[in-house]
Amino acid sequence: MLTVPFSAATDFTVLADHCENFAETLIESNDPTLKMALCGRLNACLTLLQHTLLEPVPPHLIESLTVDTLPANFPRFEPECTELCRYCLSLTQMLAGQGFYSEMEKHLSCLLYELINYFAAEMKAPRWLRTADGVKFIDEVAA
Predict the structure, then answer these.
(1) How buried is 50 (Cβ within 10 angstroms: 0-12 exposed, 13-18 middle, 19+ buried)?
(2) E strand or H helix that includes residue 6
(3) How far apart are alpha carbons 64 and 131 in whole angstroms?
(4) What's the pLDDT at 99?
(5) What is the mean pLDDT for each group of 10 consecutive residues in the chain (143 residues)?
(6) Are 20 and 117 in contact (CB under 8 A)?
(7) d(CA 25, CA 86)
(8) Cβ burial, residue 102 (10 Å; 0-12/13-18/19+)
(9) What is the per-residue pLDDT for 143?
């Protein structure tokens, strides 16, 4: 996991997959050293993704992001209300300088995991739909 190669040339869909894997392993691990290394890999992956978010989708990925029918589900971030409250409390306490407690770390790791899954789903979601009138952006058809 820690040696999986990626670079600025890696497709954003692959980077999104790596982010999901790093985040999942992060919340499952109890090893502080592994957690630190995973955070470093996740940070590197997200930094590479950040610089490409507003770029056009590369031509070789367009087919994989084009569908014949509208997806039944679109990526959504919908934590339970209790989890959302814990995430907010943990972030607030951390920002207020209350320290980084193990319970807080757990909630922040879960928040990071949820956010990464949502972000990766958005990155890999179809963008175009084949219609009788040609290929159209899904947002145009779904609206």
Answers:
(1) exposed
(2) none
(3) 16
(4) 61
(5) 94 96 93 92 94 94 95 87 85 71 79 90 93 91 72
(6) yes
(7) 21
(8) exposed
(9) 64
Residue type present at position 31? D
Separation of CA 1 from chain center = 17
Q: Which residues of 61-99 are buried (b: 16+ CB within 10 A; e: fewer)?
A: eeeeeeeeeeeeeeeeeeeeeeeeebbeebeebbeeeee
Query: CA angle 58-47-76, nearest 5°?
Result: 75
CA distance 115 to 23: 9
φ, ψ of residue 35 to 5 degrees: the values are: -60, -40
